[in-house]
């Protein structure tokens, strides 16, 4: 959690049995506009549904799990008024989700070896999600 005045940036990391296709199907219908934007680097993906909500995904097999887990998923959002707005806020929330994903991946001990870039590519209008990923 990160705070500034009356605003809070929060995130939640959890393992999931989702693959990238089911992750898309789960989150894209929640977008009630055509503003969904996705960025990726290898198997790491982040999806911004609007300016104050993002989700990040990467395959992950936890070292010890009773449940069938195939991925690590992070959800991030803001609470309260924010100084940043629009595309600037969208980028901040995606960056926060990605950094939380990196930290949770390492802390959780996912079995796959993965090199994480320092940051995901910057969001641009040309990265609009128009079709589902298989």
Molecular structure report:
The chain is 23% helix and 31% strand. The protein is an alpha+beta fold and 134 residues long. Strand 4 and strand 5 (53-59) form a beta hairpin. Mean pLDDT is 85; it is low at 128-134.
Short description:
This protein is an alpha+beta fold. Helices cover 23% and strands 31% of the residues. Mean pLDDT is 85; it is low at 128-134.
Largest sheet, strands/sense/barrel: 6 strands, antiparallel
Number of strands: 6
Q: What is the string of helix and strand elements?
A: EEHEEEEH
Number of helices: 2
What structural category arises from helix and sheet content?
alpha+beta
Shape type: globular
Q: Which range best describes the helical content: under 10%, 10-25%, 25-40%, 40-55%, 55-70% or over 70%?
A: 10-25%
- The percent range for strand residues is 25-35%
Radius of gyration equals: 14 Å
Mean pLDDT: 85
What is this structure's SSE topology?
Elements: E1 2-4, E2 7-16, H1 20-27, E3 37-41, E4 44-50, E5 53-59, E6 71-79, H2 86-108
Structure keywords:
alpha+beta, globular, 134 residues, disordered C terminus, 2 helices, 6-stranded antiparallel sheet, single chain, 31% strand
